[in-house]
């Protein structure tokens, strides 16, 4: 936007099939109000929900449908891709997201996306189960890694009568995010954390009781592995100190596999020296059995007591280093989320605490440990930002952006 808040950007709006397609008309108006020039490409499925004439009237331009029909120009897909400053697909169906992921080019919109060298934004809209399906979530993760930006989705009541994530983000919000996203465009393509080392703890720890038993928790490592992937995407060298998980670590991360809190502690302390950013996402056991029985403990008395010892607090120790890296901790709470997270920020002297609720959100979506989604708040000494409920991949994207911003501010002030 210029100094008058005007935009003057050339926006190519792709509309795919879905009931939310009618909201694209308002999006056109919102973009035009910011002095954008808008051209519209519709898929065949989109035209079953709203007529092309509506967009032709709104934009004063022909609406583009298929590869050869409008101008007879066989290179139209290339021309349209070159014309645009940004491409926004709104609404983007699950099917179109899958096509983008696999580079299919079987209609004008998918073909021009493949030919595009400008930023592509995707505003998904679909049924909540389709959104949560691992196939869709994997596709989104792959597209984000390629630098494609996701705007939304929103959550709430859906046209199908269900409630949950998958509603098209409000057109006003899509327009605002699209037009002010210059910085984040540079971020993903510009490798904002290039040359920086990010050390991330992940997953649960296992505290042995005897050769066959242990104390642990339900952390799956999903949140931390998503952060590792996004930090790599932003150009960082990533060291992942991971407790036991069933996940495949990102190929370019340096993995240090550990089991217990003591092993995690020593792996972190051995690797912390050249670390610029430390993210403690692991659910580290606070206590470990004082002794590990040499043999399997036999069932005898009615009661069994296990003496427990405090484990070292890794985050607190890293925060006490001089100089210390930028330190980000997590807090997963079942009650008084923000209050407890604030206490952890102060007690551990961390720069940020990411507070995430454990349980279900009001739409019944599982959050926190071993869930696909999280509802996260970024807490610092002077702010609390509610990022809302999203997939862990999406949250990781937002969190790495925010962390990079805090790091940059700290090192330029
Ligand atoms: O792994 P997932 O299934 O994806 O789930 C993600 C998660 C819910 C585990 C993650 O998002 C999360 O919240 N992790 C922190 C869990 C927690 O509440 O930890 P805590 O309250 O015990 O510790 C607070 C902070 O201190 C954390 O950053 C933790 O990593 C760190 N800590 C804690 C104890 C210890 N001995 N050493 C530490 O470094």
Q: What would your notes on this structure say?
A:
- There is one protein chain.
- Helix 13 links the parallel strand 16 and strand 17.
- This protein starts with 9 loop residues before the first strand and ends with a helix.
- It is elongated, with a radius of gyration of 24 Å.
- It has 413 residues and is α/β, with parallel strands linked by helices.
- The protein contains 14 helices and 21 strands.
- The chain folds into 2 domains: 181 residues, Rossmann fold; 206 residues, Rossmann fold, CATH 3.40.50.10300.
- The protein has an 8-stranded mixed β-sheet, sandwiched between helices. A 5-stranded parallel β-sheet has the order 2-1-3-4-5, sandwiched between helices.
- The longest helix is centred in the C-terminal third of the chain and has 21 residues.
- The N terminus is likely disordered.
- The site of ligand PMT has 28 residues, from helix 10, helix 12 and strand 16.
- Ligand PMT binds next to helix 10, helix 12 and strand 16.
Topology, pairings included?
Layout: E1 10-15, H1 23-33, E2 37-42, H2 52-59, H3 76-83, E3 86-92, H4 94-102, H5 108-115, E4 120-124, H6 128-132, H7 134-145, E5 149-150, E6 154-157, E7 163-167, H8 171-179, H9 182-190, E8 197-202, E9 207-210, E10 213-215, H10 222-233, E11 237-242, E12 254-257, H11 261-271, E13 277-280, E14 287-289, E15 308-310, H12 314-319, E16 326-333, H13 337-348, E17 352-357, E18 359-360, E19 366-367, E20 373-379, E21 384-391, H14 392-412
Parallel strand pairs: 1-2, 1-3, 3-4, 4-5, 8-11, 8-13, 11-12, 13-16, 16-17
Antiparallel strand pairs: 6-7, 9-10, 14-15, 17-20, 18-19, 20-21
The site of ligand PMT has 28 residues, from helix 10, helix 12 and strand 16.
């Amino acid at each position: 936007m210029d100094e008058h808040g005007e935009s003057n950007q050339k926006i190519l709006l792709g509309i795919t099939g879905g009931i939310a397609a009618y909201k694209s008309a308002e999006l056109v108006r919102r973009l035009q109000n910011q002095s954008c020039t808008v051209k519209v490409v519709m898929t065949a499925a989109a035209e079953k929900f709203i007529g092309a004439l509506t967009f032709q009237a709104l934009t004063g331009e022909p609406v583009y449908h298929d590869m050869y029909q409008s101008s007879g120009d066989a290179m139209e897909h290339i021309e349209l891709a070159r014309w645009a400053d940004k491409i926004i697909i709104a609404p983007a169906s699950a099917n179109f997201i899958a096509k983008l992921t696999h580079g299919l080019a079987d209609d004008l919109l998918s073909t021009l996306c493949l030919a595009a060298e400008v930023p592509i934004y995707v505003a998904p809209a679909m049924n909540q189960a389709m959104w949560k399906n691992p196939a869709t979530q994997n596709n989104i993760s792959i597209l984000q890694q390629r630098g494609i930006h996701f705007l939304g989705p929103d959550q709430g009541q859906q046209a199908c009568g269900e409630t949950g994530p998958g509603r098209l983000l409000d057109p006003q919000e899509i327009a605002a995010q699209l037009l002010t996203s210059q910085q984040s465009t540079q971020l993903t393509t510009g490798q904002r954390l290039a040359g920086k080392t990010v050390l991330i703890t992940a997953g649960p720890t296992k505290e042995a009781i005897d050769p066959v038993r242990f104390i642990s928790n339900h952390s799956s490592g999903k949140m931390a592995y998503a952060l590792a992937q996004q930090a790599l995407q932003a150009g960082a060298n990533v060291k992942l100190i991971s407790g036991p998980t069933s996940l495949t670590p990102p190929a370019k991360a340096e993995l240090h596999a550990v089991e217990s809190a003591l092993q995690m502690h020593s792996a972190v302390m051995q690797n912390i020296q050249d670390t610029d950013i430390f993210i403690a996402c692991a659910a580290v056991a606070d206590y470990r059995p004082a002794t590990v029985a040499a043999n399997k403990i036999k069932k005898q008395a009615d009661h069994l007591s296990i003496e427990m010892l405090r484990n070292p607090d890794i985050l607190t120790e890293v925060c006490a280093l001089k100089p210390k890296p930028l330190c980000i901790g997590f807090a997963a709470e079942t009650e008084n989320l923000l209050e407890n997270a604030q206490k952890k920020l102060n007690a551990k002297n961390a720069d940020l605490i990411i507070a995430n609720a454990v349980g279900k959100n009001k739409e019944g979506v599982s959050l926190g440990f071993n869930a696909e989604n999280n509802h996260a708040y970024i807490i610092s000494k002077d702010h609390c930002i509610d990022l809302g409920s999203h997939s862990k991949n999406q949250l990781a994207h937002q969190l790495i952006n925010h962390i990079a911003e805090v790091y940059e501010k700290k090192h330029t002030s």
